[in-house]
From TrEMBL:
GO terms for molecular function: metal ion binding. Residues 1-63 form the HMA domain. It comes from the Bacteria. Pfam families: HMA. SUPFAM superfamilies: HMA, heavy metal-associated domain. InterPro entries: HMA_dom, HMA_dom_sf. This is HMA domain-containing protein. PROSITE patterns: HMA_2.
Length: 74
């Protein structure tokens, strides 16, 4: 699963446009849009760069969310 932080999402229409763009790129992808968090998670066959480019084509800036790693103790 790839999670992207997407700038500029603010309504249900944005969610629909993003879902459509991802499905045009990867018809079998599972897409989860978290509007309040500003993230899009995609479980599919495309990589983060391809997904970011697809969203850029419809006017959204997207970048991968890097998961936090637990800090090592002493």
């Amino acid at each position: 699963m790839i999670t992207l932080r997407v700038e500029g999402m603010h309504c249900g229409r944005c969610v629909a446009r993003i879902n459509q763009a991802v499905h045009e790129l990867d018809a079998g992808a599972e897409v989860r849009v978290e509007l309040a968090a500003g993230t899009v998670s995609v479980d599919g066959s495309r990589n983060a760069a391809e997904l970011s480019a697809a969203l850029a084509r419809i006017g959204y800036q997207a970048r991968p969310v890097v998961p936090s790693s637990p800090e090592s103790g002493p």
